[in-house]
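Module 6 notes. Inverse folding takes a fixed backbone as the condition and produces residue identities as the prediction. Think of it as a translation problem where the source language is geometry and the target language is the twenty amino acids. Below is one complete input and output pair. Work through it position by position during the lab.
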């Protein structure tokens, strides 16, 4: 295979003698840094198309709220599942530990890069924000007034609240919600792992929304779409022409 002009030039510098080895190293460093910069500033057509398709299917009327969920594997597993079904916004209430600045990359933690995470230190403030974005807020709780997951109409605007691994959703969160729901079970142990319960719930939401055609049209407002263009690494040339303005 014939070397490129750049490769040939580098070889000639390297072979010209020890005095030029320093120049050789400097040249290599410049070329490598330039190539990496070019890669970072570009987006392949395949990646662009993938991200645009994902954005068009993101849902603005479905979200998940985690209250005092401490296991990082559960948190990141929930994030990954939310990304899979097109949920963009996730709300996290944590009044026992400082807000997180980063999540681990195990068990799908890298999904956080593609999600909008809202963190709160108390349920009241979180619910105030939820009320501005969603029509109904339901908590997971086994009670006499709880409805089955499969009786919920997920074509509506809904936020689902999942609680602590051991104690469940707090009394405060339940009082602020519009009601409770349960996942039907017929076993002896009447509970599921938080990440499993979330996955079962939002995939039922996905099923209903898919049948209703919610994934066939853009759901996020244009303003949000443009925010995500920036966060997801789109350059001006990557943005669809009709949306540039």
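Target side of the pair, the amino acids:
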């Amino acid at each position: 295979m014939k070397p490129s002009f750049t490769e040939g030039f580098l070889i000639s510098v390297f072979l010209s003698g020890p005095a030029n080895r320093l120049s050789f190293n400097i040249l290599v460093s410049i070329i490598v840094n330039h190539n990496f910069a070019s890669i970072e500033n570009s987006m392949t057509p395949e990646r662009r198309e993938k991200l645009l398709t994902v954005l068009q299917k993101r849902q603005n009327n479905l979200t998940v709220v985690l209250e005092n969920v401490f296991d990082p594997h559960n948190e990141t597993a929930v994030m990954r599942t939310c990304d899979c079904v097109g949920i963009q916004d996730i709300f996290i209430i944590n009044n026992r530990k400082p807000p997180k600045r980063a999540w681990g990359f195990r068990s799908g933690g890298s999904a956080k890069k593609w999600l909008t995470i809202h963190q709160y230190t108390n349920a009241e403030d979180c619910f105030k924000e939820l009320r501005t974005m969603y029509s109904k807020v339901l908590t997971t709780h086994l009670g006499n007034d709880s409805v089955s997951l499969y009786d919920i109409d997920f074509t509506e605007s809904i936020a689902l609240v999942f609680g602590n691994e051991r104690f469940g959703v707090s009394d405060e969160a339940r009082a602020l919600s519009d009601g409770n729901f349960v996942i039907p079970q017929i076993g002896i142990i009447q509970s599921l792992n938080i990440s499993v319960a979330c996955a079962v719930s939002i995939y039922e939401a996905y099923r209903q929304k898919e049948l209703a055609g919610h994934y066939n049209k853009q759901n996020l407002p244009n303003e949000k779409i443009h925010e995500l263009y920036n966060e997801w690494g789109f350059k001006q040339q990557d943005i669809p022409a009709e949306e540039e303005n």
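Reference fact for the lab report: Strands lie at 62-67, 89-93, 116-120, 136-140, 147-148, 158-162, 179-182.
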